Amino acid sequence: MRDEHPRNGSLTGEEIAVVGAGFGGLSAACHLADAGADVTVLERHDHPGGYAGRIERDGFRIDTGPSWYLMPEVFDRFFERFGRKTEEFYELTELDPLYDVRWKDGDRVRMPADRDGQKAVFESYETGAGDRLEDYLTDAAETYELGMERFVYPSRSRLRDMLDVDILKSARAFPLLRTMDDYVGSYFDHPKLRQLAEYKLVFLGGSPYNTPAIYTLMSHVDMNLGVYHPTGGIASVVDGIAELATDLGVDLRTGCPVTGIEPPGPVDDDRFDVETGPGEGSGRFDRVVANAPPPHVERELLPDAYGDREAFWESSTYAPSAFLLYFGVEGSLDGVGHHTLVFPTDWESHFETIFDDPEWPEDPSYYVHVPSRTDDTVAPDGHEAVFVLVPIAPGLDDDPETRRVFRDRVLDDLAEDVGIEFRDRIVFEESACVSEFEARFDAPEGTALALSHTLDQTGPMRPAHRAPDVDDLYYVGAYTNPGIGMPMCLLSGEHAAEAVVEDATGSGIVPSVVPTSTRR
Q: How many CB atoms are located within 10 Å of the residue 146 CB?
């Protein structure tokens, strides 16, 4: 049962539909219910989470999407907003080392969690780089605090929101609008050190060559704040937030796809018709919050007369898609860590195949997740759960033969570059790629994330929470501000709920206290 926690009641009497139960949708539902609304979440799949799904089969439990638990204070802040604590819902283990990096020339780094160990790694590649790492991470921490306190925790999804004294005080951040690669290069010369500082951009769907350097804050996120693993995987986090939503009175309906959204009429019809089906009928609501991709909402769910932004969506830069492999493996994978990043010594060509000349990469960078190295709940005794992710361009043709050939290439790479060969020990296997992201999530071009964090798609340049041309329709999730990632989507839900309250009452949700402590 939920702890006694007073609601502010500002939305009492409002009936609100949330379309989609990803992190953004669940967060918005919690905030709206806490504000007194009668909230119904309509989720097409059989379980909540959106991209953060799960495979549960033959004793394995494998996350199908996000697998890095970062920025723990954002999750703590979310649960504290409702008088609860993170540890009521799931357990966390801090990882040390944070992750492994394997280069295809045989080189290897195991990144420690402590600062002295991190500095020693950097110093081993370049004289003086250890001290420069200290400076770099100090700057990254300042950028993080600046970004979170002035740009991320406050809702600034409109250009006018940026024109206040706090933002004007942040002019010192403007040099961080150059590219990440240019900025990191001012600290480190060695290409491998630059890769260690820049790989985090994959989490944002960008590259070091098209993402602004303000996202150096991601180095603070992992090297200062730490990397964690929730027991049972990210699915446990989804379960926890869904449990909180239910405790707050949210009606969470799974297996309930939304097939149409009819806005109120111009004269006497002041409610939305939200069609579900087949055989589910429709519901009437005062407001709708869409956690589905805005391009899909405007192209497929709204009537043709609304949301004509086709030129905008066609000119947008979508974040990468991904080729994903999920394995249940008999026996152990000794020597492999929880998180392993595999890089060619020159990764620029891989980014070119994603953003410049879309094609399947010849020499891919990729990520290997083996959560069973830390968590014995995700695989049967004597087995390992393995997840492999290769970033690829959105919109690629992923016909069965192409996928088969690339799958074999990845397994060859794993054997040669990581030293693990398990093809004769696979007890189950599944995959996902562009086609699945298009079919299962209505993702434009099969992106695995959303809109990339290029300079012109950052902050208020991302789609607003208020849908254009449709009063009382709102967007939430990775396509909106503040952007991609589980923590950002949690905050997006808070911001979308604030917009609803503001429109309904003329005042926003009373903000919660931002925790200043960290787990480190």
A: 19
State the number of CA atoms in the 13 A half-sphere of 158 facing the CB. Answer: 10
Residue with tokens 């989507």: 489
CB-count burial class (<10 Å; 0-12, 13-18, 19+) for 3 = exposed
CA dihedral 221, 225, 230, 233 (to 10 degrees): 20
DSSP string, 358-392: -S--SS--EEEE-GGGT-TTSS-TTEEEEEEEEEE
CA distance 172 to 156: 18
15-92+232-316+453-505 — its CATH code?
Answer: 3.50.50.60
Query: Which residue carries 């809109």 as its tokens?
Result: 451
- Tokens 């204070």 correspond to 73
Element (H, E) at 109: strand 108-111
User: Which residues lie below 8 Å from residue 120, measured CB to CB, with a gap of 6+?
Assistant: 130
Query: Residue 500 corresponds to which amino acid?
Result: V
Distance from C-alpha of 497 to C-alpha of 510, rounded to nearest angstrom: 11
For residue 163, the model assigns a pLDDT of 39
The residue with tokens 């709940």 is: 377
Q: Are strands 366-369 and 38-42 parallel, antiparallel or unpaired?
A: unpaired
Residues 186-241 have pLDDT tens digits of: 999 999 999 999 887 776 677 778 777 777 778 888 899 999 999 999 999 999 99
Which residues, 6+ apart, have CB-to-CB distance to 3 below 8 Å? 83, 84
Q: What are phi and psi of 39, to 5 degrees?
A: -110, 130
159 phi, psi to nearest 5 deg: -60, -35
DSSP strand pairing (426-432 vs 321-330)? antiparallel
Domain boundaries, the chain: 15-92+232-316+453-505, 114-225, 318-441
Domain 318-441 has CATH 3.40.50: no
Buried b (16+ CB within 10 A) or exposed e, 261-297: bbbbeeeeeebbbbebeeeeebbebbbbbbbbbbbbb
| Residues in Cβ contact with 412 at an 8 Å cutoff, skipping those fewer than 6 apart | none
Residue for token pair 């706090």 = 166
Alpha helices in 224-281 (DSSP H): 234-247
pLDDT given at position 515: 36
Q: Where are the alpha helices (DSSP H) in 108-216?
A: 115-125, 129-147, 165-168, 180-185, 191-198
Report the run of H or E that residue 430 belongs to, with start and end. Answer: strand 426-432
Residue 499, SS3 per DSSP: helix
Q: Return the number of other C-beta atoms located less than 10 Å from residue 54's C-beta.
A: 21
Cα–Cα dist 124/111, whole Å: 12
pTM for this entry: 0.90
